[in-house]
Amino acid sequence: MELLKTLTLFGATAVAEIVGCYLPYLWLKQGHSVWLLLPAALSLAIFVWLLTLHPHAAGRVYAAYGGVYVSVALFWLWAVDSVRPSFTDYIGVAVCLLGMFIIMFGPRQV
Known about the structure:
The protein is mainly α. Helix content is 77%, strand content 0%. The protein contains 4 helices and no strands. The chain has helices at 2-30, 37-51, 58-79, 87-105.
């Protein structure tokens, strides 16, 4: 159950961060409305709040979250930007997720 909760939190956190960064990109690079900054700020606030919901030490959570972020960002590349990830992208995602699992669920000395 902890695995499912952790992955769900990380996934939601990554989406919140990506949306919070993508909306200003649309404004700055594609000429969309400046009003996109309001939902972007809200999304980034949600991102920060979601990171606080993990029961582990903050540094460990931040380190492991990076692996999930890479995975979600490449999914975003495909789903939103219509760019298919390459074979090496998939290998990179596998390495990042392996790192996340080791950091979050590996044995520790108490």
